[in-house]
Write the structure tokens for this entry.
Amino acid sequence: MSIEISIFDPGKTYFGRKQFDCEHPVINKFVRESLPSQVKRQLSVAYVLTDSDQHDQFAGFFTIANHAIDMSALSALRLGSLPKKIPCARLVMLGVDKAYKGRDLGRRLMKQALAITQQSSTQMGCYGLYLDADPVAVGFYEKLGFLLLEGDKSPEPSPMFAAVGSIATSLRSSQ
Ligand SMILES: CC(C)(COP(=O)(O)OP(=O)(O)OC[C@H]1O[C@@H](n2cnc3c(N)ncnc32)[C@H](O)[C@@H]1OP(=O)(O)O)[C@@H](O)C(=O)NCCC(=O)NCCS
């Protein structure tokens, strides 16, 4: 298996994108129908995993965008005094096709998202990476160093955050 990660090109045809199946209906529909237009309209940037042994099959992806959260949302993390609005990145969507799950590819995508967040923070204010975790994925994100902001809100999505200050450690310890 030879899997590459690259920035998603909305003008390109990706083998298997229309059949993408990460076993999450909302994310599948997004990939099959909306991903190219989201990226074309600059609402998100996407990174995609392709399998060069399988005609560059679309094996997984994430989308990331600029975001801002209320300082009160971070109170559980006890980060000291902060301005009212906190600039951050937001992981919007993430999925690995069921044929590729359990091979560390979700972690590889998340490491890329964390590295982008870290890099962004050197170019403009970006305090960390925010996401709304699906109940089944909370444990996955915890392994990457994300903290729950309001506890586990299952069956609703749970807000989670990784502060830039902790990302270097997360990247090292999740290798
Ligand atoms: C969540 C998802 C991205 C994980 O991808 P994956 O490639 O199967 O995960 P990896 O193989 O990289 O797993 C990395 C680690 O997380 C663990 N893990 C994977 N999925 C997990 C889950 N749902 N809950 C808890 N831990 C999980 C793995 O066991 C592994 O840990 P280990 O190294 O200690 O063994 C994938 O299952 C998926 O696409 N799910 C459907 C879509 C979804 O829920 N997206 C997130 C919405 S917020």
